Amino acid sequence: MAYATQMDAARQGIITREMEIVAEKENRTAEEIRAWVAEGKVAIPANKNHKSLDPAGIGSMLKTKINVNLGVSRDVADWESEMEKVNHAVELGADAIMDLSTHGDTKIFRNKLTDECPAMIGTVPIYDSVIYHQRDLGELTAEDFLEVIRAHGEDGVDFVTLHCGLTKRTVEQLKRFGRKTNIVSRGGSLIFAWMSMTGEENPFFEYYDEILDICREYDMTISLGDGARPGCLADAGDLLQIEELVRLGELTKRAWEKDVQVMVEGPGHVPLNEVAANMEIQQTICAGAPFYVLGPLVTDIAPGYDHITAAIGGAVAAAHGAAFLCYVTPAEHLALPNAADVKAGIMASKIAAHAADIAKGVPGARDEDDAMGDARRELDWEKMFAHAMDPETARRVRDERSPEVEETCSMCGKFCAVRSMNKALSGEKVDIL
């Protein structure tokens, strides 16, 4: 090819097949997409080896995208069940699947994902490093970590989360100033532990240029992980979070110098009144690079309902510039999510993303809502189901509680406001009894 990455192509004035597909999905022109990719404001994670990929664009001016975290652990190691969750997540509208597996032969599952799954595939290479090399964390070298990144690139992974922003300085600051929940990022805690055990600098920071060369080779997007993200409201906006974000801004520009696409990961727990400010600070520091946020969760005391706390924060975040929402399920902080948890998390994130897209004025975002308004005025139930985000659930709820008057629902029956207005406006008698 005449280009190495999507960003390289865009800067040469080349409109790729992936850009054309994204433009059609987003109701934008291919030239608009090309220009945004060239600037780094839109990323199209599309590894050259992910042959089954249906490309998508991530950027604040596009539809807000949804990521679903899946994968097996030592306690729950059913690969077949996990693949069923993947397929169902894609059916429900997930734009990306992050394989966070921490047990068994992860390569088999990863290859199955890139062979069959049309959604973007992401990974966190440090999770896989212990398994890949069959050596414990403190025994691994910087070269070992880089080898795993290359392996994921060869396997077709579209984006990798790398916690490049944590440094030895972070270790010193945390020990000196403290934090209520310390570091809650799993990858961030592993890097922190590795630096503490070895006394060496973060290899993802120290060998960043070599990592960029690997990413450029496969057109693998870097998702700059927020290893110091706040794990409770009390830690939001503290020294560790903001200093890491500044460092991620510097690393973003270094990646762009090599035509490597970048996303920047954002905070987990943030008070609702601080969410918008967090988005604006990131947009400034990271020069408009797509912001990928976990939630944010706006309260710490709702385990079992954290898909709701995340959806509240996610809607505000996306309305103020976040481009990519990592779903949160009811099992967050409690357990590995089952199929029902996955669906609840996806639907909550989709609602948040859609609400934000309407607020931002994304082209076509409100079309389905307007069509639903017409269907409800007409009491056309089939149209209502067709325009629903989850038609299956909507139809099931109505069928389980069948109404006395078929044209209405069992909440109001003949007291239905829509029915009364339709009859009154057409000059008909409004019969109640």
TrEMBL record:
<feature type="binding site">
    <location>
        <position position="163"/>
    </location>
    <ligand>
        <name>substrate</name>
    </ligand>
</feature>
<feature type="binding site">
    <location>
        <position position="265"/>
    </location>
    <ligand>
        <name>substrate</name>
    </ligand>
</feature>
<keyword id="KW-0408">Iron</keyword>
<dbReference type="GO" id="GO:0005829">
    <property type="term" value="C:cytosol"/>
</dbReference>
<dbReference type="InterPro" id="IPR002817">
    <property type="entry name" value="ThiC/BzaA/B"/>
</dbReference>
<dbReference type="GO" id="GO:0009229">
    <property type="term" value="P:thiamine diphosphate biosynthetic process"/>
</dbReference>
<dbReference type="GO" id="GO:0051539">
    <property type="term" value="F:4 iron, 4 sulfur cluster binding"/>
</dbReference>
<protein>
    <recommendedName>
        <fullName>Phosphomethylpyrimidine synthase</fullName>
        <ecNumber>4.1.99.17</ecNumber>
    </recommendedName>
</protein>
<dbReference type="GO" id="GO:0009228">
    <property type="term" value="P:thiamine biosynthetic process"/>
</dbReference>
<dbReference type="Pfam" id="PF01964">
    <property type="entry name" value="ThiC_Rad_SAM"/>
</dbReference>
<dbReference type="InterPro" id="IPR037509">
    <property type="entry name" value="ThiC"/>
</dbReference>
<feature type="binding site">
    <location>
        <position position="269"/>
    </location>
    <ligand>
        <name>Zn(2+)</name>
    </ligand>
</feature>
<feature type="binding site">
    <location>
        <position position="127"/>
    </location>
    <ligand>
        <name>substrate</name>
    </ligand>
</feature>
<feature type="binding site">
    <location>
        <position position="98"/>
    </location>
    <ligand>
        <name>substrate</name>
    </ligand>
</feature>
<feature type="binding site">
    <location>
        <position position="69"/>
    </location>
    <ligand>
        <name>substrate</name>
    </ligand>
</feature>
<dbReference type="GO" id="GO:0070284">
    <property type="term" value="F:phosphomethylpyrimidine synthase activity"/>
</dbReference>
<keyword id="KW-0456">Lyase</keyword>
<feature type="binding site">
    <location>
        <position position="292"/>
    </location>
    <ligand>
        <name>substrate</name>
    </ligand>
</feature>
<feature type="binding site">
    <location>
        <position position="412"/>
    </location>
    <ligand>
        <name>[4Fe-4S] cluster</name>
    </ligand>
</feature>
<feature type="binding site">
    <location>
        <begin position="185"/>
        <end position="187"/>
    </location>
    <ligand>
        <name>substrate</name>
    </ligand>
</feature>
<dbReference type="InterPro" id="IPR038521">
    <property type="entry name" value="ThiC/Bza_core_dom"/>
</dbReference>
<feature type="binding site">
    <location>
        <begin position="226"/>
        <end position="229"/>
    </location>
    <ligand>
        <name>substrate</name>
    </ligand>
</feature>
<dbReference type="GO" id="GO:0008270">
    <property type="term" value="F:zinc ion binding"/>
</dbReference>
<keyword id="KW-0411">Iron-sulfur</keyword>
<comment type="pathway">
    <text>Cofactor biosynthesis; thiamine diphosphate biosynthesis.</text>
</comment>
<keyword id="KW-0004">4Fe-4S</keyword>
<feature type="binding site">
    <location>
        <position position="409"/>
    </location>
    <ligand>
        <name>[4Fe-4S] cluster</name>
    </ligand>
</feature>
<comment type="function">
    <text>Catalyzes the synthesis of the hydroxymethylpyrimidine phosphate (HMP-P) moiety of thiamine from aminoimidazole ribotide (AIR) in a radical S-adenosyl-L-methionine (SAM)-dependent reaction.</text>
</comment>
<feature type="binding site">
    <location>
        <position position="333"/>
    </location>
    <ligand>
        <name>Zn(2+)</name>
    </ligand>
</feature>
<keyword id="KW-0479">Metal-binding</keyword>
<feature type="binding site">
    <location>
        <position position="416"/>
    </location>
    <ligand>
        <name>[4Fe-4S] cluster</name>
    </ligand>
</feature>
<keyword id="KW-0949">S-adenosyl-L-methionine</keyword>
<comment type="similarity">
    <text>Belongs to the ThiC family.</text>
</comment>
<keyword id="KW-0862">Zinc</keyword>
<keyword id="KW-0784">Thiamine biosynthesis</keyword>
